[in-house]
Amino acid sequence: MNYYNNYLTKMKTSSPLLLLIILLLISCKKQNHHNHNKTDTVISSNNQTIKPRKFSPITAFGSEPNWNIVISKKTNSNFIFKLTTQLGSKVTTGSVTLKNTISKKNNLTTYFKGYDDFGKEITILYTNTPCLDMAGNELPGALQINWNHQVLYGCTKKMLE
């Protein structure tokens, strides 16, 4: 019987401490989850909650010479690219920085500038204007790449947003 009374006494003194630890852990998890959601939203000047736009990778291609490029977002204004030329036999990667804002307005040019992994300068100009591919299909954007003493012209499959 004495053992049972000792056990009850220990439980009475340690239970509040255990309960406090559990409550702290639960509140920390809720706090982290709440803070994570705050980074996903922006309050605009007219107090509307909006989600920031996500940049989907852009794929562009051209011919004479045959080439394609994929541009993906790395951070706010920093992007990485993978340029494939010479019928897929030469792949070049690197990073570029957005030099102006991305706009959906027609005929506005978005300008990227950077370097490939070998230190060669590259500039990429994207224009929200219809572009005809070699098959005569109208695509939503035009792209010009200045790299390695070449100027490559081509089209994008989707509009840059």
In the sheet with the most strands, the strands line up as 3-4-5-6-7-8-11-12
| Count of individual helical segments | 1
Sheet/helix structural class: alpha+beta
Helix content: 10-25%
**Integer average pLDDT:** 75
E-strand count: 12
Overall radius of gyration: 28 Å
Largest sheet geometry: 8 strands, antiparallel, barrel
Euclidean distance between termini CA atoms: 75 Å
Question: Strand content of the residues, in percent?
Answer: 35-45%
Q: Give the SSE string.
A: HEEEEEEEEEEEE
Keywords:
161 residues; alpha+beta; 2 domains; two-stranded antiparallel sheet; 41% strand; 1 helix; 12 strands
Structure description:
The chain is α+β, with helices and mostly antiparallel strands and 161 residues long. It has two domains: 2-50; 58-156. Helices cover 24% and strands 41% of the residues. It has one helix and twelve strands, in the order αββββββββββββ. It has one helix at 2-39; strands at 42-43, 49-50, 58-62, 67-73, 78-85, 90-98, 109-116, 121-127, 131-132, 138-139, 141-147, 150-156. The strands form three sheets. An eight-stranded antiparallel barrel has the order 3-4-5-6-7-8-11-12. It is globular, with a radius of gyration of 28 Å. The protein starts with a helix and ends in a 5-residue tail after the last strand. Mean pLDDT is 75; it is low at 28-52.
